[in-house]
Predict the structure.
Amino acid sequence: MEFFTIFILLGLAVAWRTIKIVPNHQNFVQERLGKFKKVLIPGFHFLIPIVDRIAYRHEVREQVIDVQSQACITRDNIQLLVDGIIFLKVMDAQKASYGIANYIAGSVNLAQTTMRSEIGKLSLDSTFSERDSINEKIVKEVDKASDPWGIKVLRYEIQNISLSDQMVNTLEKQMEAERQ
């Protein structure tokens, strides 16, 4: 009886390592003896125990990633805090696995530096009015840089543009002086 139980448990362990079911919204990267073998698409797959393993699992649905507030300085030397949201999707699981260590962090950092650069080219007044063109430029630059990572940047949206309290007071005083 004990022998039969051990045999059943051993068989279940081998089956657990052999059979992989990839969910509809993911891709798995299979490695054989530590080397890339293939990308497993959604469905039912068999692996060779001990020889094969699932090295990476990637979400292939569109991902929404929050870009933290970033201090930016406009062309007229006014400091702004700008944050946003980046929408991206894994297009090639192999490149996303081996092209970069962390494609999410890379995309966010690239979006932040591009945002600082684009806002630095504009004055304070045009920063508020040209949000759409800033968003388009950020998408273009990040998408171009992330192509070797197997990532497609779908869109970028600036959420908030805020001034420091000191700057708001200064602008209010300026507007009041202009009225008088």
User: Anything to note?
Assistant: The radius of gyration is 25 Å. The chain has a mean pLDDT of 90. The first strand starts at residue 19 and ends at 22. DSSP finds six helices and eight strands in the chain.
